[in-house]
Specification:
Helix content is 18%, strand content 41%. It is of the alpha+beta class and 133 residues long.
């Protein structure tokens, strides 16, 4: 008596219609898992975060304004975002454009292209950001 071993028919497995990620539910699950992975691990090292923020005002014959931090930064290896937000009077053209930013561990000083002029002012929102490396 011979014993015959039945081998699986691999073509049935290979040719089977497996679900693809474009199927609605599977696509939603994959996107959710991708988002969770990215949030927890994948690009954490490149996520900037705001450490401090505030508003500074450049007034009159001055072309600079300074924001003093309530808590000193450990170093000056941070990035600064400056956005003009409001003005008083009729400031001179260029008083809402940033020319330079000077950073210390306790302050950010913004220099604008032109002085606002007597009785005028220009306010800026300042955000200090760090990137986790």
């Amino acid at each position: 008596m011979s014993v015959r071993t039945r081998l699986p028919n691999w073509s049935l497995i290979r040719d089977r219609e497996w679900p693809v990620w474009s199927d609605g539910l599977l696509l939603a699950v994959r996107k959710a898992l991708d988002n969770l992975w990215n949030l927890l691990y994948a690009d954490f090292a490149s996520r900037p975060f705001v450490t401090q923020s505030g508003t500074l005002t450049v007034t009159g014959a001055s072309a600079t304004g300074t924001l003093t931090f309530p808590i000193a930064e450990p170093d000056t290896a941070y990035q600064v975002i400056v956005t003009p937000v409001s003005s008083t009077g009729t400031p001179a053209a260029g008083s809402n454009r940033v020319l330079a930013v000077a950073k210390t561990t306790t302050t950010v000083t913004v220099t604008v292209e032109a002085q606002p002029g007597g009785g005028n002012s220009q306010s800026f929102d300042v955000s200090v950001m760090r990137v986790i490396v």
